Amino acid sequence: MRDDAALVMFSGGQDSATCLAWALDRFAHVETLGFEYGQRHVVELACRDALRAGMASPHLGPDHMLAVPTLAVIGGSALTEDAAIAMREDGLPNTFVPGRNLVFFTLAAALAVRRGIRHIIGGMCETDYSGYPDCRDDTIKALQATINLGMNTRLVLHTPLMWLDKAATWRMAQALGGAPLVELIRVQSHSCYQGVRDVLHPWGHGCGECPACDLRARGWAAYAGG
Ligand code: ZN
Q: For the chain, which residues make up each domain, given as ranges?
């Protein structure tokens, strides 16, 4: 198992793009992993190639894509069904996909074992997030323990954005790759739940109205203005 290799859970959004740059700065060999789970904003996955090309490096290894259609079969989330985005009775937005990150980390760990990779990187954040319980630091730490017990491994789950707000995530990109990396992520990464790509705002592409666009726009304003 290579201690100098990392697998980045790479959706093509701002957070995972920043995580890819972070990993390329720290590990000799970096592979990426995307999940196709029936998300309405599947356009996000098309952004992955452009981001990988923009961060091309001798350290950047192969890309992997896993199909996880089961989450959409189970249903019940506005991310996988044509439902209006709203708050649930328990205070969580209905964009929450129950079990998503639990499944993703388990599959990422299985792939990492298969590839001989010790480090797994995810863009989860509980600073200015939507309250998704599977993005919390405690969840990820518990998953690391569970995965290592269940797979007889010593994998390390890294979440470099956990305690950063979106403005700080832009500053991390600036520190890692300067203006060219910020511009690459601004133009090529995708956050919008509605999958809108035809409008380029100062903060990137999106509908400008969904919760993901709202969070991204406010983060960019705080970064660019401060
Ligand atoms: Zn949007």
A: 2-191
